[in-house]
Write a structure and sequence with these properties.
Layout lengths: L2 H24 E2 L12 H13 L10 E7 H16 L2 E7 L2 E12 L2 E12 L6 E7 L2 E3 L4 H11 L8 H5 E7 L2 E7 L4 H9 L2 H20 L4 E3 H15 L5 H16 L21 E3 L5 H14 L3 H16 L7 H19 L1 H9 L4 H4 L12 H8 L5 H15 L6
Parallel strand pairs: 10-11
Antiparallel strand pairs: 1-5, 2-9, 3-4, 4-5, 5-6, 6-7, 8-9
Helix pairs in contact: 2-11, 7-8, 7-9, 8-9, 8-13, 9-10, 9-12, 10-11, 10-12, 11-12, 12-13, 12-16
C-alpha cells in the first residue's frame, strides 16, 4: 500500500472513530425530561393572571417594571413554544443565583435513533444572566457557541431573532427558589419588534392570502350573521389549493388562526404588524349551531391543538368554564363540547392535514363540525354545578364528558 493511501485510510478511520465517539457522547437512549401531562387549572389561572397584569398594551413606555414568575409558569410557556417549534420537552429548576434547564429532543439518523438531551446552567449576573456551562448528553459545549446556534436555529424555523431587543428591554434578572424576577422597560416600539421577529416573511405572505379570502367571503352576504361552515369550507379549500406547492400544516394553521382572530373580534394586525395596513373583513357574527360563542370555543381550541399543547388546550377550556361557574355565565358542558370538537379538528389539521382538506372539500355543514349538544347541561352556577356533579373530575362529570366524546366519535369528520 502506498504511503498516501495509508494516510488517507488512517484519516478516514480517525474521522469515523471521532464521529462514533461524538455520537456516543451526545446521543442518549432515554430522554432526560419525561413527558408531562399534568397541567392543572391552577397553572393556567396563575399564568393568565400574570399575563393580564403585565399586558404590554397597558405598559407605560420607559417605566421600569418588575415581574415575578414561578418556575412552573416559565416551564408552561417554554414547553408550549419548544414543543410547537421543535418537538422539545423542557424542564426548569431555579435556586438562588442560578437556573438550570434540561431539554430532550427525539433524534433519528438512518437506522440510528436516540435522544438529544441538552443541559444548561445560567448564573445570575448584573443585567442578563451568564451562561456558565452547557452540554449535549455527556459532550461539553463551548459557551461561545450559544449565540450563533440560537440564531441558526431561529433562521431554520423561519424567524428573524432581534437579539438586540433583549438587553434593550430586560434590565435585570434575579433567580430565587422556584421563581425568577425580571426588571424590564417596555418601549413604544417593543411590541412591533417582537411580533416582527416572530413572523417570518413567508408566514406574513401566507396570512395575507387568507385575510384576502376572508375579506371576499365577508363581503358576499347581505346579512349580519353567517354560519361558521360558510367561512371554514372556503378557507380550507384555499388551504387545499395552496398545499399543492406549500406545507399543508402551515396552510391549515394560517386558515385557523385567521378565523380564530376574526370570530373573537381581533385583527391580524394584533399578531402581524404589517397586517394593520391590509384590507379588513366586514364584521359579521359567526355562528355554529345558531350560537356566536361556539365558533370562539371551537376555533381557539383548534388553534391551540395545532400548536401542540393538548394538555394546555384542555386546561384552558376547563379554566374558562370553572371561572364562569364562579360568577360568569355559568359552567357549560355545551361550551366544553365545542372545545372538544375544535381540539379534534386542530389535531386533524396538524397530524393529517391533507386528509382534513379532502374531507372538507366534500362539503362542510354545522352537523359536520359539531354534534347536537343542546340537551347538555349549561349555565350552571357554582352551587348548581356542585349539587349535580360535585367537582371537576367526579364520576358524574366524567360520564358527561364520555357522552360528549361518543357524540364526536359519531361524526365522520373526526373518525
Amino acid at each position: 500500500m502506498k504511503p498516501w493511501t495509508r494516510w488517507a485510510a488512517g484519516g478516514l478511520m480517525a474521522l469515523m472513530l471521532a464521529t462514533a465517539t461524538l455520537f456516543a457522547l451526545a446521543v442518549d437512549r432515554q430522554p432526560a425530561v419525561p413527558e408531562r401531562n399534568d397541567i392543572s387549572l391552577e397553572d393556567v389561572n396563575h399564568a393568565l393572571a400574570v399575563a393580564r397584569s403585565h399586558d404590554p398594551r397597558r405598559s407605560v413606555p420607559g417605566r421600569l417594571t418588575r415581574i415575578t414568575v414561578t418556575e412552573r409558569d416559565i416551564e408552561l410557556l417554554l414547553n408550549h413554544a419548544a414543543h410547537r417549534l421543535l418537538g422539545l420537552r423542557v424542564a426548569l429548576h431555579m435556586q438562588p443565583q442560578q437556573a438550570r434547564l434540561a431539554a430532550s429532543l427525539p433524534w433519528r439518523w438512518g437506522p440510528l435513533a436516540g435522544w438529544l438531551n441538552l443541559q444548561a446552567e445560567w448564573q445570575q449576573a448584573p443585567g442578563l444572566p451568564r451562561l456558565a456551562q452547557w452540554r449535549l448528553g455527556r459532550l461539553p459545549l463551548p459557551t461561545a457557541l450559544a449565540r450563533p446556534l440560537v440564531q441558526a436555529a431561529a433562521a431554520r424555523l423561519g424567524a428573524v431573532p432581534d437579539l438586540a431587543l433583549i438587553p434593550d428591554v430586560v434590565q435585570q434578572v434575579q433567580f430565587a427558589d422556584q421563581r425568577m424576577a425580571v426588571d424590564y422597560i417596555w418601549q413604544s416600539d417593543t411590541s412591533q419588534r417582537v411580533l416582527a421577529a416572530l413572523t417570518p416573511p413567508a408566514e406574513e405572505q401566507r396570512l395575507r392570502a387568507y385575510n384576502t379570502r376572508l375579506v371576499e367571503l365577508a363581503a358576499r352576504g347581505p346579512g349580519w350573521a353567517v354560519p361558521m361552515s360558510a367561512l371554514l369550507g372556503p378557507m380550507f379549500e384555499l388551504a387545499r389549493q395552496r398545499s399543492l406547492t406549500n406545507d399543508a400544516v402551515l396552510e391549515n394553521r394560517a386558515a385557523v388562526l385567521t378565523l380564530a382572530l376574526y370570530v373573537n373580534g381581533r385583527r391580524l394586525g394584533s399578531v402581524v404588524p404589517a397586517a394593520r395596513t391590509w384590507p379588513q373583513p366586514r364584521r359579521l357574527q359567526v355562528q355554529l349551531a345558531g350560537r356566536g360563542d361556539f365558533p370562539q370555543h371551537f376555533l381557539v381550541s383548534a388553534f391551540l391543538a395545532m400548536e401542540g399543547t393538548n394538555p394546555l388546550t384542555h386546561a384552558i377550556g376547563l379554566a374558562k368554564e370553572v371561572a364562569d361557574a364562579h360568577g360568569g355565565s355559568g359552567f357549560s358542558f355545551t361550551d366544553l363540547a365545542a372545545n372538544r370538537a375544535g381540539l379534534r379538528f386542530g389535531q386533524l389539521a396538524a397530524n393529517q392535514p391533507t386528509l382534513l382538506q379532502d374531507r372538507m372539500a366534500r362539503g362542510v355543514s354545522e352537523s359536520t363540525l359539531l354534534p347536537p349538544v343542546a340537551d347538555l347541561p349549561e349555565f350552571l352556577k357554582q352551587a348548581d354545578f356542585e349539587a349535580s356533579f360535585g367537582q371537576v373530575g367526579s364520576p358524574p362529570y366524567q360520564r358527561v364528558l364520555a357522552d360528549i366524546e361518543a357524540r364526536l366519535d359519531s361524526l365522520p369528520l373526526y373518525r
